[in-house]
Amino acid sequence: MSKLNYHHLNYFWEVAKQGNLTKAAERLHISQSALSSQISQLEHNMGVQLFSRQGRKLVLTDIGYTTFSYADEIFKRGIELEALLLQGLKAKNQVIKIGVLATMSRNFIEGFVEPLINRPNTKFSLYARGQAPLLKALANHQIDIALTNIEVNGANDQLWQCQLLARQPIAVIGRSGLGLSETFSSDYATQNWILPVEDSPIRSAFDGFCAIHQFSPNIVAEADDMAMLRLLTRDTDAIAVMPEVVVKDELKSGELVSYMRLPNIYEYFYAVTVKRHLPNEVINELVLNAVKA
Fold first, then answer.
1. CA distances for 84 relative to 71, 89, 142, 197, 233, angstroms
2. 76: nearest Cα among 33, 133, 140, 22
């Protein structure tokens, strides 16, 4: 009677994740020929074809997709168990790995991690990435939690747990002394504008606001990074559209002014984790603290 070889299954799992033999072989530190032989042995023992070749690409068959789903659960549980056992042995040095969307407000991120700064026997690491690399790192257990302003759903909704942490009002912000009113008026037509880039949720909402008011702003700059929007607004006479949290220090000092909040327009902040059999208590505390804030 044939038995499942978990060593071979692990090789299959790596190839399926990487999408080709070369990358998987490099990751596993074995030759491509040896890796191919091990997967062929797995297919022979189980009496199935897990991959089909399309040119140089390896494509999962239907049974391959099913096998990958089971293997993914098996080995991710193994990674989770290994981390739990090591954490039990090294509890004095707990490390929380937090991935953040590279374009997010640094002030919001700072507020999220603040409870960790003076927490005994705990340190944290921050990794700034794009949305897709962020989710990939999360799925591969390279980080414990991801912070993003893009809601995660769709095909991986069985994998992700996406928690809304907060929403921040979007405002028109500029240097002090511009004399702009708190409600939208013709005064805003004479201003230069700095806006988020066109494919961002904030920009889409602002474009809708402009359409309702039949207003065409004089756009002098665009940026996809909140830190850059903050700098451009602080160092020029243009006004910008952004969450107030991005410039909270400048607003407090009076260097910048929030002239008008855009009605019913917000930026949403999410915490994304992968479903775990044993939840991380520190991560849970951080999320609950952010929700209550």
1. 20, 9, 14, 42, 46
2. 140
Give CATH for domain 167-265: 3.40.190.290
More confident residue, 155 or 105: 105
Is the distance from CB of 254 to CB of 234 less than 8 angstroms? no
Tens-digit pLDDT profile for residues 182-241: 999 989 999 999 999 988 889 999 999 999 999 999 999 999 888 899 999 999 999 999
Strand partners, 95: 123
- CA geometry: angle 83, 21, 32, nearest 5 deg: 100
d(CA 86, CA 11): 24
The DSSP bridge partners found for residue 53 are 58
Domain boundaries, the chain: 6-86, 92-165+269-292, 167-265
State the Cα–Cα distance between residues 259 and 216, nearest whole angstrom. Answer: 18
Q: Token digits for 266? A: 């917000």
Residues 7 and 41: their CA atoms lie apart, in Å, by: 11
**Which residues, other chains included, contact 26 with Cβ-Cβ below 8 Å and sequence gap of 6+?**
none
Indicate the CATH number for domain 6-86: 1.10.10.10
